[in-house]
Amino acid sequence: MAVQVSTKWLGEMRFESTNPSGHNLFIDAGEENGGKGEGYRPKALMLSGLAGCSGLDVASLIKKMKLQVDDFKIDIDANLTDEHPKIYDKVTMAFHFYGAELNEKKLQKAVDLSIEKYCGVMEMFRQFAELDVQTHFHKK
């Protein structure tokens, strides 16, 4: 399956990028790198892609398993190497589930299925980074 994205320079350090969904996003450097900070930073966008990929998997599994979850979020902390090309070499991904009736065993299974089987972005990250995935349950 081919995926096409087109990214157009808007001047200075700003770009607009298409997406197969039809929604566009803006990419810009921070002021420290000659930009105005009016868009996503490319490396941070990779982390959002990782969280989004796994989050979609888990949300789908929550629905299929008919689990009671009031809310969940994914926090990512990543270490960027000092030398060029700067890459993420260590990534910690923390799933936080909130609710009064959390089925911890099934939610952990949903996370495990995402990180071990379904999330292609996770597999791509495995090629260059050490991954630490954590699951936290917050009962209300």
TrEMBL record:
InterPro entries: KH_dom-like_a/b, OsmC/Ohr_fam, OsmC/Ohrsf
Coiled coil: none
SUPFAM superfamilies: OsmC-like
Pfam families documented for this protein: OsmC
PANTHER family named in the record: PROTEIN YHFA (PTHR34352:SF1)
Name of the featured protein: Osmotically inducible protein OsmC
Source species: Pseudotamlana carrageenivorans
